Amino acid sequence: MDADPGIIxxxxxxxxxxxxxxxxxxxxxxxxxxxxxxxxxPFRVPYPFVRAVQHPCSVVIKPTNGDFLNNYxxxxxxxxxxxxxxxxxxxxxxGGLHRDKTSSWNxxxxxxxxxxxxxxEVWDSVLETVARQDCxxxxxxxxxxxxxxxxxxxxxxxxxxxxxSEAAVSRVKFCEAFVSPRATVACKYxxxxxxxxxxxxxxxxTSKSSKNLxxxxxxxxxLF
Length: 224
Ligand SMILES: [Zn+2]
What we know:
This protein is an alpha+beta fold. 31% of the residues lie in helices and 17% in strands. It folds into two domains: 8-46 and 190-221, no CATH class; 52-184, no CATH class. It has helices at residues 68-71, 120-132, 148-159, 162-167, 171-199, 216-221, and strands spanning 8-11, 16-19, 43-44, 58-63, 78-83, 89-93, 96-98, 109-113, 201-204. It is elongated, with a radius of gyration of 20 Å. Zinc ion binds at residues 12-13, 26, 28-29, 31.
């Protein structure tokens, strides 16, 4: 369950219609859909989740158990890790520090990604230095006070990378600045996905005019 389910958004007669496949009749007005009609303009709603291995030098999050689309709800804690320049996930959990679970990060969110090429070596070497500290053991792990965030924030502080390192002074500050905005977009997508899975389509009558239809962020942000 790590692939884009392919949610389509289309506008036939005003309200936005979301579906997995374009239906024969418009769910809003029941008129038969003519796919050549200029007002139809279907487009794919951007899938927010990625495979960590394709995002080197990133901070990534996912549900501790299960996946976002099927299992996640907002009261659940998110697990956090860091990818190396090769896309390998380094993470700290109750079993200690791991580098061998990258394949379980096939449906995650990138909360921050390094974009400046010259920094790649610094990223890897700081990550290596922090990972080698002997505190990342199963014995030291504590669900509330010494967990996956402790490791990632320690790394980000050592990185001395402007806003990212500044926000890393506390979990609350970091989550507000970097995690929550991404998780909010993801939650909207998840809610939409589950609606479509239940009923096949969703007609969004409260949305704004179709002028913004092609603006993907506007569409995601105005879904509910
Ligand atoms: Zn219609």
